[in-house]
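Recall the central idea of this unit: under ordinary conditions, the amino acid sequence of a chain determines the structure it adopts. In this exercise we apply that idea directly, starting from the sequence alone.
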Amino acid sequence: MMRVCEIFTSVEGEGIRAGKVCTFVRFVGCNLRCSWCDTVYSYDGGKDISAAEILDAVPSDARYVTLTGGEPLLQDRQELRTLVSSLISRGTEVNFETNGSVDFREFMSEGSIITADYKLPSSGMSDRMDMSALRCLRPTDVLKFVVGSEEDIARMEEVLSDLSPVCHVFVSPVFGSTDPARLVEWLKGYGFKNRIDIRIQIQLHKAIWPPETRGV
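Accordingly, the structure predicted from this sequence is:
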């Protein structure tokens, strides 16, 4: 069984599928406690559901599914493998939204995308990253940074230099406390000078609905 908080269909708010209709499976439980977390309601509660029950709840013709949390990779691995392989077999592309601290490599299959965070200092969790897994991100995957301070920007530059990522790279401001214009100015300098393909993103769902709205 896996512990699920909610299953809903909406538009993807971030990453390479931003703006596309997607079904979300939000799991319960996280091994991190980021200072700016916007899904603290997924830390506990929910209900136990099997892979088969989740498949029944996901539209059979869903083109995109995102597994999120919490941290989806804390769920029962056998059940998770069953869920992912079943979704892919029916033509659904599966995106894992993972916090960067749990090894995701066994799920790097054709038909899946890994969207992995690197937690910067303002999160309070930067010492928990699994760098060996992050080094394996493919061109189809995503490395994401959430920036909340100037210290975060300096650390992000160090990480980019260290990893030399071949995957997509997205940078977001901490919602409500970091000016997105600061990241644009940084990107105009750093990104241009280093010829790194980095994109600024704003959480689309928070622009469409009130920021605290769930199930959208």
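The domain at 2-208 is CATH 3.20.20.70 (TIM Barrel).
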